[in-house]
Design goal:
It comes from Sinohyriopsis cumingii (Triangle sail mussel). With about 120 residues, the chain is mostly helical. Helices cover about 65% and strands about 0% of the residues. The protein has a domain of about 55 residues.
């Protein structure tokens, strides 16, 4: 028990030491107008630095991430489908998950979020 307390205290102490070292090394001592201005290959900045982006592209990227995570969740189910120790409830849950995934794709398709051009 004493070893656990000592190791936890040592970890917390080491964490604080690394935090303060990072804060000290991250401080910029030379702050001026030139340092805080945006740099574009030696030229004065042209236009705004806040460039509007396509909301459709953002939504498509979010949809990709969501379905990518769902595909990763399917990997264990695919590995277990052929084995004999899976109970019927597992197959039902897999089927419900796939149906929800399919309904989500159909919804996004009807909404037009999967269209590349518009």
């Amino acid at each position: 028990m004493e070893k656990v307390v000592v190791s936890v205290l040592l970890s917390v102490f080491l964490g604080f030491v690394l935090l303060f070292v990072g804060l000290f090394l991250g401080v910029s001592f030379f702050v001026g107008r030139e340092k805080s201005s945006p740099f574009e290959c030696g030229f004065d900045p042209i236009g705004s630095s806040r460039v509007p982006f396509s909301l459709r592209f953002f939504l498509l990227a979010v949809i990709f991430v969501v379905f990518d995570v769902e595909i990763v969740l399917l990997f264990p189910a695919v590995m277990v489908v052929g084995s004999s120790w899976v109970w019927v409830g597992g197959y039902v849950m897999l089927l419900v998950f796939l149906v929800l995934l399919f309904v989500g794709v159909i919804h996004e398709w009807r909404e037009g979020s999967l269209e590349w051009e518009s």
